[in-house]
Write a structure and sequence with these properties.
Largest sheet: 4 strands, mixed
Number of domains: 1
Shape: elongated
Number of strands: 6
CATH architecture: 2-Layer Sandwich
Distance between the termini: 69 Å
Number of helices: 3
Length: 135
């Protein structure tokens, strides 16, 4: 077995051990958050931005995972769409992320801290094509 501190514990059974890496938990959290209308992206640090520019994409962009035994704590930095209710959107993210991580990993999610790092204008609707102007 590996002694990697980024492993979220393990389950031992007759067939062997199962370990969940923190990056996998972060990816689950990111996918769950991105499904919510009004979430534009997960934020990240300056280093995350540079890593993204050189083409390496990770599931941890703007997401911090801490594991203690069978308990998980998550911190998500989000960029949201202008006009969204921060309180309502944050609650939805907390709920969806908690459910997804618990369902997929079997671990208890103790906290999901949401940090709204930025706001972007809504995406523009595409212009009508000329044939749509026909009467």
């Amino acid at each position: 077995m590996t002694g990697d501190p980024r492993m979220a514990g393990e389950r031992n059974g007759d067939l062997g051990a199962v370990q969940v890496h923190h990056d996998a938990i972060a990816a689950i959290a990111r996918i769950a958050a991105m499904k919510i209308a009004g979430v534009v992206d997960t934020g990240g640090s300056f280093v995350d931005g540079i890593v993204g520019m050189i083409g390496k994409k990770g599931g941890t962009h703007g997401i911090r995972v801490e594991v203690a035994g069978n308990d998980v704590t998550l911190e998500l930095s989000l960029v949201i769409e202008f006009g969204s209710s921060i309180a309502q959107l944050s609650w939805q993210v907390q709920s969806e992320v908690r459910q997804a991580v618990q369902q997929m990993t079997g671990k208890r999610v103790q906290r999901v801290d949401v940090i709204v790092q930025g706001v972007q204008p809504p995406k523009a609707k595409p212009a009508l094509a000329p044939e749509e102007f026909a009467v």
